[in-house]
Protein backbone atom coordinates (compact mmCIF):
# COMPACT_ATOMS: atom_id res chain seq x y z
CA UNK A 1 0.00 0.00 0.00
CA UNK A 2 1.44 3.34 -1.06
CA UNK A 3 1.04 6.18 1.47
CA UNK A 4 0.91 9.75 0.31
CA UNK A 5 3.00 11.46 3.01
CA UNK A 6 2.33 15.07 1.87
CA UNK A 7 -1.43 14.49 2.16
CA UNK A 8 -1.02 13.02 5.64
CA UNK A 9 1.08 15.99 6.73
CA UNK A 10 -1.47 18.42 5.27
CA UNK A 11 -4.32 16.63 7.04
CA UNK A 12 -2.43 16.81 10.35
CA UNK A 13 -1.75 20.52 9.86
CA UNK A 14 -5.39 21.24 9.05
CA UNK A 15 -6.51 19.29 12.11
CA UNK A 16 -4.06 21.29 14.21
CA UNK A 17 -5.40 24.59 12.83
CA UNK A 18 -8.97 23.50 13.48
CA UNK A 19 -8.10 22.50 17.05
CA UNK A 20 -6.34 25.82 17.63
CA UNK A 21 -9.32 27.84 16.42
CA UNK A 22 -11.59 25.75 18.64
CA UNK A 23 -9.81 27.04 21.75
CA UNK A 24 -11.91 30.22 21.73
CA UNK A 25 -15.61 30.41 22.42
CA UNK A 26 -17.72 32.34 19.90
CA UNK A 27 -17.97 35.13 22.50
CA UNK A 28 -14.17 35.32 22.86
CA UNK A 29 -13.70 35.24 19.08
CA UNK A 30 -16.08 38.21 18.72
CA UNK A 31 -14.40 40.05 21.62
CA UNK A 32 -10.96 39.49 20.05
CA UNK A 33 -12.14 40.88 16.70
CA UNK A 34 -13.72 43.90 18.42
CA UNK A 35 -10.54 44.58 20.45
CA UNK A 36 -8.63 44.68 17.16
CA UNK A 37 -11.08 47.27 15.80
CA UNK A 38 -12.99 44.94 13.45
CA UNK A 39 -16.70 45.36 12.83
CA UNK A 40 -19.00 42.51 11.89
CA UNK A 41 -20.75 42.95 8.55
CA UNK A 42 -22.97 39.99 7.85
CA UNK A 43 -20.80 36.89 8.33
CA UNK A 44 -17.53 38.83 7.88
CA UNK A 45 -15.31 40.71 10.30
CA UNK A 46 -13.90 43.81 8.56
CA UNK A 47 -11.33 46.43 9.54
CA UNK A 48 -10.21 47.61 6.11
CA UNK A 49 -12.50 49.86 4.04
CA UNK A 50 -11.78 47.87 0.86
CA UNK A 51 -14.55 48.75 -1.62
CA UNK A 52 -14.86 45.15 -2.81
CA UNK A 53 -11.68 44.50 -4.77
CA UNK A 54 -10.85 40.94 -5.77
CA UNK A 55 -7.86 40.92 -3.39
CA UNK A 56 -10.01 41.36 -0.27
CA UNK A 57 -10.24 38.58 2.31
CA UNK A 58 -12.11 39.28 5.55
CA UNK A 59 -10.65 39.08 9.04
CA UNK A 60 -9.56 35.57 9.97
CA UNK A 61 -8.19 34.20 13.22
CA UNK A 62 -4.83 32.75 12.17
CA UNK A 63 -3.30 31.79 15.51
CA UNK A 64 -4.51 31.18 19.05
CA UNK A 65 -1.75 30.50 21.57
CA UNK A 66 -0.06 31.83 24.68
CA UNK A 67 2.81 33.90 23.30
CA UNK A 68 4.13 35.46 26.52
CA UNK A 69 3.77 32.58 29.01
CA UNK A 70 1.04 34.14 31.17
CA UNK A 71 -1.35 31.21 30.67
CA UNK A 72 -3.84 33.27 28.63
CA UNK A 73 -4.32 33.16 24.86
CA UNK A 74 -3.13 35.66 22.31
CA UNK A 75 -4.81 35.84 18.92
CA UNK A 76 -3.39 36.87 15.56
CA UNK A 77 -6.05 38.14 13.17
CA UNK A 78 -5.24 38.70 9.51
CA UNK A 79 -7.09 40.57 6.77
CA UNK A 80 -6.08 40.66 3.12
CA UNK A 81 -6.35 43.60 0.75
CA UNK A 82 -3.99 45.34 -1.64
CA UNK A 83 -6.35 48.34 -1.43
CA UNK A 84 -5.53 48.76 2.28
CA UNK A 85 -2.12 47.08 2.56
CA UNK A 86 -0.43 47.77 -0.78
CA UNK A 87 1.76 45.12 -2.40
CA UNK A 88 2.14 43.30 0.93
CA UNK A 89 -1.54 42.47 0.59
CA UNK A 90 -2.06 41.62 4.26
CA UNK A 91 -2.39 43.24 7.63
CA UNK A 92 -2.44 41.67 11.07
CA UNK A 93 -3.63 42.49 14.56
CA UNK A 94 -2.32 40.86 17.73
CA UNK A 95 -4.73 40.84 20.67
CA UNK A 96 -4.22 39.43 24.15
CA UNK A 97 -6.72 38.17 26.69
CA UNK A 98 -6.30 40.05 29.97
CA UNK A 99 -6.64 38.66 33.51
CA UNK A 100 -10.22 40.01 33.74
CA UNK A 101 -11.19 38.19 30.51
CA UNK A 102 -11.24 41.31 28.34
CA UNK A 103 -9.13 41.59 25.19
CA UNK A 104 -6.45 44.19 24.44
CA UNK A 105 -4.87 45.20 21.13
CA UNK A 106 -1.09 44.72 21.45
CA UNK A 107 0.07 45.41 17.89
CA UNK A 108 -1.32 45.99 14.43
CA UNK A 109 0.51 46.52 11.15
CA UNK A 110 0.65 45.92 7.44
CA UNK A 111 2.70 42.79 6.89
CA UNK A 112 3.03 39.16 7.86
CA UNK A 113 4.01 38.56 11.49
CA UNK A 114 6.65 36.02 12.39
CA UNK A 115 7.24 35.46 16.11
CA UNK A 116 10.91 35.18 17.01
CA UNK A 117 12.69 33.45 19.91
CA UNK A 118 14.09 36.79 21.15
CA UNK A 119 11.91 38.54 23.70
CA UNK A 120 11.04 41.97 25.01
CA UNK A 121 9.51 43.02 28.33
CA UNK A 122 7.34 40.51 30.22
CA UNK A 123 8.25 37.62 27.90
CA UNK A 124 6.61 39.03 24.78
CA UNK A 125 8.29 37.67 21.64
CA UNK A 126 9.85 39.98 19.09
CA UNK A 127 7.89 40.14 15.84
CA UNK A 128 9.49 40.24 12.40
CA UNK A 129 7.01 41.99 10.11
CA UNK A 130 7.50 40.47 6.66
CA UNK A 131 6.45 41.65 3.25
CA UNK A 132 7.97 42.50 -0.11
CA UNK A 133 11.66 43.33 -0.04
CA UNK A 134 14.74 42.11 1.74
CA UNK A 135 15.04 44.01 5.02
CA UNK A 136 12.24 43.57 7.54
CA UNK A 137 11.45 45.50 10.71
CA UNK A 138 11.57 43.65 14.01
CA UNK A 139 9.37 45.16 16.70
CA UNK A 140 9.83 44.51 20.43
CA UNK A 141 7.39 44.95 23.32
CA UNK A 142 8.72 47.65 25.68
CA UNK A 143 6.01 47.41 28.33
CA UNK A 144 3.70 49.90 26.59
CA UNK A 145 3.82 49.05 22.88
CA UNK A 146 5.57 47.11 20.18
CA UNK A 147 8.23 49.52 18.86
CA UNK A 148 10.90 49.22 16.17
CA UNK A 149 13.89 47.35 17.61
CA UNK A 150 15.99 46.48 14.56
CA UNK A 151 15.91 45.57 10.87
CA UNK A 152 16.90 42.11 9.65
CA UNK A 153 16.87 39.73 6.73
CA UNK A 154 17.10 35.96 7.21
CA UNK A 155 17.98 36.53 10.87
CA UNK A 156 20.93 38.83 10.18
CA UNK A 157 21.15 42.63 10.59
CA UNK A 158 20.58 44.55 7.37
CA UNK A 159 23.56 46.22 5.74
CA UNK A 160 22.89 49.86 4.94
Short description:
By secondary structure, the chain is α+β, with helices and mostly antiparallel strands. It is built from 3 helices and 11 strands.
Question: What are its keywords?
Answer:
single chain; 160 residues; five-stranded antiparallel sheet; four-stranded antiparallel sheet; 3 helices
Gyration radius (Cα, Å) is: 17 Å
Shape: flat
User: Strand order, biggest sheet?
Assistant: 7-8-9-10-11
Order of helices and strands: HHEEEEHEEEEEEE
Instruction: Give me the secondary-structure category.
Output: alpha+beta
Number of strands: 11
Largest sheet: 5 strands, antiparallel
What helical percentage do the residues reach?
10-25%
Q: Which regions are unreliable across 5 or more consecutive residues at pLDDT < 50?
A: 1-22
Strand content: 35-45%
Number of separate helices: 3
Q: Determine the N-to-C terminus distance.
A: 55 Å
The overall pLDDT, averaged over residues, is 89
The overall number of domains is 1
Signal peptide: 1-21
Protein name: FG-GAP repeat-containing protein
Keywords: Signal
Organism: Zestomonas carbonaria
Tell me what you see in this structure.
There is one protein chain. Helix content is 19%, strand content 42%. The strands form 3 sheets. A 5-stranded antiparallel sheet has the order 7-8-9-10-11, with no helix packed on it. The chain contains 3 helices and 11 strands. The protein has one domain. InterPro entries: Integrin_alpha_N. Keywords: Signal. This is FG-GAP repeat-containing protein.
Amino acid sequence: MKTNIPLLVLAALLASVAATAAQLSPQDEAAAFRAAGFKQQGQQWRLCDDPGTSSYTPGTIETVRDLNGDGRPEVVISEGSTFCHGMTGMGYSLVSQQADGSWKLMDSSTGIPSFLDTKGTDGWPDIEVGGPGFCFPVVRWNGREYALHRQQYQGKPCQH
